[in-house]
Design brief:
The protein is mainly beta and about 850 residues long. A hairpin with a 2-residue loop joins strand 27 and strand 28.
Length: about 850
Amino acid sequence: MRIKGLLALLTLAGFSSLSTTFSANAEIIISGIVVNENKEPVDVATTRLVDASGKTRFFRSTDENGRFQFTIDTLKWNGTLLVECLGYAPASREIATDRSIRDITVALSQKATELKEVVVTAPNVRVLGDTVSYRLSAFAGKGDVTLKDAMRNLPGIDIADNGKIKYLGKDISNFYIEGMDLLGGKYNVATDNLPVSSVTNVEILNNHQSVKMDKDIFSDNVAINIKLNAKAKFRPVGTYEAIAGYGDDWLYQLSGAGMMFTNKFQTILNVKYGNVKEFSQTADADLADSSDSPYSAGDLLGSSSLSTPPLSRDRFINPEDCFVSLNTLNKTGADGSLRANAGYSYSKASYSYLSLRDYFTDAGALHIDEQQSSNVSIHRPTLALEYKLNGDSQFLTNKFSAAASFKDNDFPSVLDAVHFNQHEKLKDYSLRNEFRTSWRRSRLRWSISSLLEFNSAPKGEIDVQGHEPEESFLQSAKSCSFLTKETLSAAYEYKRSRLWMPLSILYSHNRLQSSLDSPLAENDAREDNLRLWFAPQYEYTHPQRKYVFRGTAILQWQFQRMRNLGSSPLSDTFNHFTISPNAYFYWKISGSSSFRTQIVYSDRMGDIADFLSAPVRTDNLDISYATGILSRKKSFNAMMHYDFKIPLEMWFLNADIIYDNTRSNLLSNSNVTGDYILSSPLFSPNTLETVTGLLNITKQFTSINTKISLGGSYMWGRGDIAQDEVIRRQYTGSYSFSGSIIAKPWSFLEFVYKGRMTRSRMKFAGIRNSLLSQTHTLGLSLFPFKGFEVRTGCDITRKELTRDVSKTMALMDAGVAYKFSSFRVGVDVRNILDTRHYSYSIFSGINQFSYDYALRGRQILLTFSFTR
């Protein structure tokens, strides 16, 4: 298996001659069925292939139909098939063959066994077809409290800071609890609140197809299913926590989560409030949402923050958050379900920093030093209702969602000893309804979908008050948009081929108004967009799904009418016809490795933002305006992905190579002076190229209960940049190495390490610059006796601020906790050394920006929690 996966990589790299000595069909399939004395299938029987030396080479459990299958990468197999199941006598079959055997029948006879003192343990990892099941208790640490804590220990799984879950580098498409999709993409609600003690298994569903009637269609999606223990089913469970402490001010946090999971009903009620750490934005985030919203007043006014430091936000944000959510799912039949998700979040975040910006000019560097702070609060209520009928021959879903946001932000600044009081307000609302139904008739598969979307931002403004009247202004903006998209699709199936023929029509109307009072500048931009496209797709799937090919050609006609009736009036209409082909290929090299590649060409037109010809100010420095030239971007993207996994031996590897080439007719430009930064695009055809390489390797060493992950990345890019209307060619590059260790070698010790080293390079006009950065996170927990934990941690960063000038900083934490029965009491001290500032530098185009963020001081926290 490893040899063949390696050969595939060598072949892709051009070493094709190495693979010619191996037959393309050098694999043997051994499959069959396990039955009892009554010829009834026996599920969850353990089947093993043992080689001549007595070593187990392959391991499978029979499915619900008693079937098993092994795919062996060899020209000849000589060994033994062993079958075992509780309550039956073991059975074996000698197999010596150089060809596939698909009709093995193994009959088990019942065996009466007198059980005395017997301890039965399940395997830590089980593989059943495309499903890999981890027994969570085998990987969870003693200090792990939530499901997310324990899932970080699972090999092949990575969890980002925002909670997004990846498996072998790929985002998960669905998150289930006992096979039911309660939360959609808002699965942070479960991973942050479900007690680790309530979960038995975490299942990885490879090649997951969420629509039952499409189960015969190949999918490379990956999903996660959480299996609960009997204690967590059919009765309320949950965790309740109270935190109190003191730092720069009094600290407090209260949280509670009540849950119930039955065969037909699931619900989670979550309530949190406090100022210890942020949670509202991540708890309310839809991590599976990839939809695009039209350009709005919120996009125009932008964000007041220039950058975010490479630290946990809890280190520099002073929060005050509130989050309430109620999630329910009720099965209305064998295939039907009704889901409701309602929530309210309030987040308030305060932070401050000093920005030191060096802008490159022909006359030398231009320095802009500014002290900034922000105190932003956002109220956000949400509601989602979904009905779904997911049957074998019909699929129907309708999802209605509504959301609102109320933002209030004070962000004063000091520029050249001049104080500016800046205040931003923004209200926006959105309504969205998605309908889709599919059904099958013989070889035809029909689908109808409809999307309706309405967005409104009735009020947005930025009020800036400077020392002098000419330094003050009021910038207002509001927007409203409507979109509808209707699609009719038919698919014809013939043997292993499918021809998809979707026809779609889209109409959207967007209006965006802005007004600047000093000097007077108004935009009243309106866009009407009509698109009609036909996207035929051909698909071929190998009978055993060893490879899949898809080819698509998107034929699109687009009509756009643009108008700006403001102080700088513009009007134009555009007709475009484009053809955008793309291709996809998947190759299952072996049972443990696969390769996929995708090539995509797209031709995208601009939007209403290109016609905002009157100036818009977003703070005391920045002014922007558009020229009325519609932007156009032609992009070519090629991606290759390889993954290799042996779940039973806990080896995982994934590698990616990505190439992007984007041609644009407009080039972003900024004219920088000591008083303003004026941004407006230049009409200048340009090309941006990037090449990215990624590699990640993970191995779980069961003998020492340790997970080790190593990763690396490389990025190269080149493109044109403009500043002060001077166009320059810029080359960028970076490489990084990362590693993590989660070790639990003894029952009394747990150790965690995560680190990254990155070198960033930039070259333009004969000038070369580079910056080196390192981040290291260490954690150590000791368990001297039952229920008692002593833990310490440290975040170490080393940043190169300028050439040969670096700064190292360490943030240290410590704590103790005692757990008895369902209760847990802990005391923590964060930022023991009371470090107050953190500095770092980044490249922004040809410019270099440095920041000095104020950090939260030392904190002492007392925690009390109860888990039912």
